[in-house]
Amino acid sequence: MFEVKICGVTSVDDAMMIAAAGADAIGLNFITGSPRCLNLKIATEISHNLPKEILRIGVFVGRPSSEMLSITKKIGLDAIQLHGLFDGPPDKSDPPWRCDELKPYPVIRVVRLEDPSIERDRLATARQWIDAAAACGCRPAMALLDAGVSREANPGTLGGTGHTVDWEAVADAPSLPVPTTLAGGLTPDNVATAIRTAHATAVDTASGVESSPGQKDPDLVRRFIESAKQAFSERDRA
């Protein structure tokens, strides 16, 4: 679907700068309580000003499918990213049948490493969610692996914490049955190492290229995209 995604874009200027720097996709945040949450007017302006080849991905937590579909159609999004918990209160979770309800839009499902235990597979719950989605009629098109969060966290904090994922644990876990993007604490200085260590096929960042929440730094964006693209190119040549 993409190799490099910059998430939490909050302005047309930032979106155009990110596109010019070579990103494949941007994320538009609709999670209430997040410092990067957009209203429909600004999100629509961003979407309409982007080049057609840039994927526009809406980021949601615990919204009814009808509401997500309405926003997606109005703004012209290409895919929907679900950041909610695997189960829990409706305003904080995204159940497996969402993928079927959101057709024909592809769904990117955020998954998180479980705490170390006697089980080697720290993605076991994520695997179960994906299998359940398939049983409901449609599995996600992609998984996005982010840092863990507390079940008591407010919905606004579920859009990403900026904490770094254990890349070696990702590499050790059995692969998920869908393409997986690595997120969580990625910066221009560590993204290449993360790609090599975790064997990532795509990467996503928000706070790692910001000067303040929601404000993207052009130099950090450029360096992040260049480092990631070079690491992917080296992987493909190997």
The N- and C-terminal alpha carbons lie at a distance of 22 Å
The tally of helices reads 8
How are the strands ordered across the major sheet?
Answer: 7-6-5-4-3-2-1-8
List SSEs in N-to-C order: EHEHEHEHEHEHEHEEEH
CA-atom Rg in angstroms? 16 Å
Structural class: alpha/beta
Query: What is the molecular shape?
Result: globular
Portion of residues within helices:
25-40%
Kindly estimate the percentage of residues that lie in beta strands according to DSSP.
15-25%
Counted beta strands: 10
Largest sheet: 8 strands, parallel
Average pLDDT metric: 92
- Unreliable residue runs: none
Describe this structure in words.
By secondary structure, this protein is an alpha/beta fold. The protein is 34% helix and 17% strand. The protein has 8 helices and 10 strands. It has helices at 12-21, 40-49, 65-75, 98-101, 124-135, 167-172, 191-198, 218-237, and strands at residues 4-6, 25-29, 55-60, 79-82, 107-112, 142-146, 180-182, 203-205, 210-212, 215-216. The strands form 2 sheets. It has an 8-stranded parallel sheet. Strands 9-10 form a two-stranded antiparallel ribbon. The radius of gyration is 16 Å and the shape is globular. The model has no long low-confidence stretch (mean pLDDT 92).
